[in-house]
Amino acid sequence: MKKNVKKVVLAYSGGLDTSVILLWLKETYGCDVVAWCADVGQAEELDGLEAKALKTGAVQYVQADLREAFVRDFVFPAFRANCLYEGEYLLGTSLARPCIIEGMMQTVADVGADAIAHGATGKGNDQVRFELGAMHFDPAVQVIAPWREWDLKSRTDCIEYAKARGVPVTATAEKPYSMDRNLLHISFEGGILEDPWSEPPKEMFVLSVDPEDAPNKPTYVEIGFERGTPVTVDGEALGPADLLDRLNQIAGANGVGRVDIVENRFVGMKSRGVYETPGGTLLQRAHRALESLTLDREEMRIRDGLIPEYSTIVYRGLWFSPEREMLQTMMDSIQATVTGTVRLKLYKGGVQVVGRKSPESLYREEFATFERDDVYNQADAEGFIRLNALRLRIRAMREKARRSS
């Protein structure tokens, strides 16, 4: 138990875990609890939270609107680096956590709190993300993580704890899977999803229609970029949060952006997660398409080799680390020419790149054409091939001599 804790800032969502934690903190530590909530795009999930927090016993409720900062300062930089964890996950939760802790630690300073508390379990990644971020802003911060301290062993125990104290919760023992929403995605895990053989129920999804129910004709959308950052949708300039929201609506209506994966958590276990990332899926596909037109081959090859490293760093909660900042500087430096427009075709969950253009294009039709040209001497290819084959020929000669001896 932490010492001399008089006021705690709790990362509060109003859900089962944090509602129980608020009561538990008061009962266990006898401290004041400031319920702190970040608006990173949870929409209607934020309705009524202030009244609920105060009724549950919080001395103060603080809600910070971080939507613009989340997309501008976290999502867009990561997408300029083409973040993708284990080949599929666009890091929606991983990117929200450093944004949230940055805002939360500002409130800790404003209210003079002694500690922070969060509802992340001792099995998951979020405990690492929250606490590494908090220590970046305050190396001496005290952290209370109830799932590592209390006697409650499951969400079922939490439901009973809440009921015994008259706290309303939305989770039930029959449907206990958890959701986490922000402007970039919704994640689902736990409950029936813990069986990796079990198909997610159709009614579970929020941001996207079932691909089978999507329109029977394709939708086209154009995304414009400046220096690797998306700035327009169908020619209309939009701010970061509005742009991502617009793409979420377009992609979601076409069933785009669902992934169902088993990922490797930082703490060492595998975990099944289902994600909806509709707008982010479009951004990632369009950005890569524009890079194919504007980046040098070797720039892209070397950078692509670092995408798994960058993504793992972010996934493991090290956004505020020198290694992430170093890689970000390199990733951003090659985005100077990634300016242009990409046209995507969406149809029943699928995304196709069907057009790309840029004033910085390296593509030259006169060199690439299969028709007659006057700029490329095809005979030059013979020497190119022989030089590249030299090391292979020498190795083959050595092997032939070895077999003959």
Would you give an account of this structure?
The chain has twelve helices and 14 strands. With 405 residues, it is α/β, with parallel strands linked by helices. It folds into three domains: 143 residues, Rossmann fold (3-Layer(aba) Sandwich), CATH 3.40.50; 177 residues, Argininosuccinate synthetase, chain A, domain 2 (Alpha-Beta Complex), CATH 3.90.1260; 40 residues, no CATH class. It has a five-stranded parallel β-sheet, with helices on both faces. Strands 10-9-8-13-14 form a five-stranded antiparallel β-sheet, covered by helices on one side. Strands 6-7-12-11 form a four-stranded antiparallel β-sheet, with no helix packed on it. α1 links the parallel β1 and β2. α3 crosses α7 and α7 packs across α8. It is elongated and about 85 Å long. The model has no long low-confidence stretch (mean pLDDT 93).
Strand order of the largest sheet: 3-2-1-4-5
Domain count, please report it.
Answer: 3
Task: Output the CATH homologous superfamily of the largest domain.
Answer: Argininosuccinate synthetase, chain A, domain 2
What's the shape? elongated
Order of helices and strands: EHEHEHHEHEHEEEEEHEEHHHEEHH
Task: Please state the second-level CATH architecture of the largest domain.
Answer: Alpha-Beta Complex
Our estimate of the beta-strand percent is 15-25%
Overall structural class, as computed from helix and strand content, comes to alpha/beta
Task: Give the integer mean of the pLDDT values.
Answer: 93
Could you give the count of β-strands? 14
Residues in helices, as a percent range: 40-55%
Distance between the termini: 75 Å
CATH class of the largest domain: Alpha Beta
CATH T-level fold name of the largest domain? Argininosuccinate synthetase, chain A, domain 2
Stretches where pLDDT falls below 50 for ≥5 residues? Answer: none
Biggest beta-sheet profile: 5 strands, parallel
The count of helical stretches stands at 12
Q: C-alpha Rg, in Å? A: 25 Å
